[in-house]
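Hi C.,

You asked whether I'd gotten around to modeling the 180-residue construct. I have! Everything is below, sequence then structure, no commentary in between.
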Amino acid sequence: MLLRRGNLVVTRDRALLVGGVLVLLLLGAVLPYVTLGYLDPASRPVTGTPRLFGAAGLLGGVDPTYLPGYRPEIRSDYNLALNFAAAGPGLQQIGTVVAVLSCWALLTDEINRIAWWFLHLSAYPLLLAGVPLLVGAVQLHGLDVDLRVGPGWVPALVAGVLVWLASWRARSRIDTYGSF
């Protein structure tokens, strides 16, 4: 036991788990998420390589007419593919913020029911973020858009697995309010 202060009981295993989740979420936030080639307003080629918190804005905010090789007759296909791809980092952002704010609950002997639910539910966007990202990337490749998926979503996927497993393991520690 590393620390005991009331309900907060920091054991080596719990500290390693929470530390690992936080490191993985930080890696997911700082590694390059996507690389997209597009044209700026002056029609110069630009390559954007945002991290997590800029990727959804780039993918969801780029006008398809600024993509090299844009074909107006299939604009809806471009919009659909960009929206799918932008949903991935959007989901990961939500899962990352909620997991960071609620992972402290894994350190306590009795976990508050609401904190447990927030922690548990934060795993799902982390687990699912890669699906729309990869579906959108495949669609954009089919439209000959220069999009490369970076490694930023992989640590979040691993963190999602850890959070999901840890929350199920910690479920037996949810407070029962038996004294009320």
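If it helps when you're writing up: Residues 51 and 147 are 14 Å apart (CA to CA).

Thanks,
B.
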